[in-house]
Design goal:
This protein has 157 residues and is mainly alpha-helical. Helix content is 76%, strand content 0%. The protein has one domain. Helix 1 packs across helix 4, helix 2 runs antiparallel to helix 4 and helix 3 crosses helix 4.
């Protein structure tokens, strides 16, 4: 069934949906980076290579998140139910907002729910946390793949 889901990705509906998801995810990841530290400040503090790596990681994360959402949509179309791994892309965004987002916002958010501490100084402008978010997306893709490839389906293909 995974091959059927991949074939669906080439249809006009999924290409347009993918472009919309990609634009949305790139926007979100760029906003999270900007709230943490602007690319100009990052360049001054850590050098051009960290800026380049951050932007390339944003592109990879947006692409994988888009694939995750499109495969989840294909699973709904093929199996009639949503996959368990589809929420991990959203969790990676939430994780990014809460960990390498704007420190003032994170402190205010945690304080509003009763937690009075937050990370003050994040190494490499929060890049290690971005790698953890990338890992969450990867786990989501693996779960969706397993559900598509080995999951039970009432309808035989």
């Amino acid at each position: 069934m995974f091959k059927a889901a991949i074939r669906l990705q080439k249809t006009k509906k999924y290409v347009i949906q993918g472009l919309v998801f990609f634009a949305f995810f790139i926007f979100i990841y760029t906003i999270i980076d900007t709230l943490n530290m602007s690319y100009a400040q990052m360049n001054e503090s850590f050098g051009f290579y960290l800026v380049l790596v951050n932007i390339l990681t944003n592109i990879v994360m947006a692409t994988l998140s888009t694939l995750l959402m499109n495969l989840s949509t294909a699973m709904v179309e093929l199996k009639g139910k949503e996959g368990k791994g589809s929420t991990l892309g959203f969790l990676s965004i939430l994780f990014g907002i809460l960990t390498y987002g704007c420190t003032g916002c994170v402190i205010a958010f945690f304080a509003s729910i009763g937690i009075a501490f937050s990370v003050i100084a994040l190494p490499l402008a929060g890049y290690p946390y971005k790698l953890i978010a990338l890992l969450l997306i990867g786990i989501g893709l693996y779960v969706i793949y397993r559900e598509l490839e080995y999951g039970k389906c009432k309808v035989k293909l």
